[in-house]
Amino acid sequence: MKKTVRILSVVLALLMATLMLASCGKTIKGTYSAEVDVLVLKYTATYEFSGKNVTVTKVVNPLIGDAQTYTIEGTYEIIENDDDTLDIKFEFKTADDHIKSGTFDFEQGEDYIKIGVVKYNKK
User: DSSP assignment, residue 52?
Assistant: First the structure.
């Protein structure tokens, strides 16, 4: 009887560990930044990932006027598609005209990530 209980305990512990690992999705860790030139303005976008949370800071430098900084916090999820490509889905707590929730193409390299068409280098 004791042997059966021990074996059952080990099997249940292994099953729980397997389920916990299977439920963990792909995550990103660290800070990534890119400078982007769009017609008459230049901006720097920085993504700071921690667990499933993300903080995005965008510093807009117009040709005329002072720089403006926008920061927003939210969550993200990396989605694996059937064709082995990845998407990243952002959900931000508040609405912002400069930083939007949504799903974008995603690529991850050793020292960079690519969201949509913009490549962000690891800091």
Answer: T
